[in-house]
Amino acid sequence: MKRRREMEKGSEIQSAIEELSLLIKLKTSDNHDAALIPTRPFLYVCNLVIQVLDKIGPTMAVLRQDINQNVQRIEMQCDSDPSLYSNLVEILKKESDEANARKGASCSKAFVWLTRSLDFTVALLQRLVKDPDQEMEEAVKDSYNITLKPWHGWISSAAYRVALKLIPDTKAFINLLKRKDENNDTLAEDMETFISLLVPILEEIHSILIFYRLDKLKST
Q: Could you give the CA distance from residue 80 to residue 201 in angstroms, rounded to a whole number?
């Protein structure tokens, strides 16, 4: 896809900023008052987050797999009616009306976990921007504890405890995030921009999840 090839020229954070800017532009250009989460740009951001998590290494393999599966699930639903489901909220509405939102492998549940994965990513980057010298293991653990752990059951939590032992050091992670010609200050600015764009969107999404009574879903 041409769009993705163009993105590869910049860092994952820069590409995510572009996608978030597009998502916000689509939202502000919309003429009706109903909730709107543009599906394709949202999923592009999630795919870029996978690339960021890949930099952490095998530690994030479980989360990466979950994100990928959840993106594919929503993409399949979107492909069934691209016009209607260009707004992700329409998918939530459909499953809510059919009383399927909490059942099986629903798109509603996929959306919940994608949102929580974005929460985790924001929390992690916020810590690294605030304290670049913080140990990576501590940053990941703290971010996990406040964003994902409250919703994970025993099995999922155990998997993450094992994965924490494989985390690279902070300097290595930062170097992996940077482009070859990028310095730490520029990367920090990009991370701050990414956070500032994504946080208001996540706040709106959490309000939508509360409206559809999806905010308390837990895993095994």
A: 25
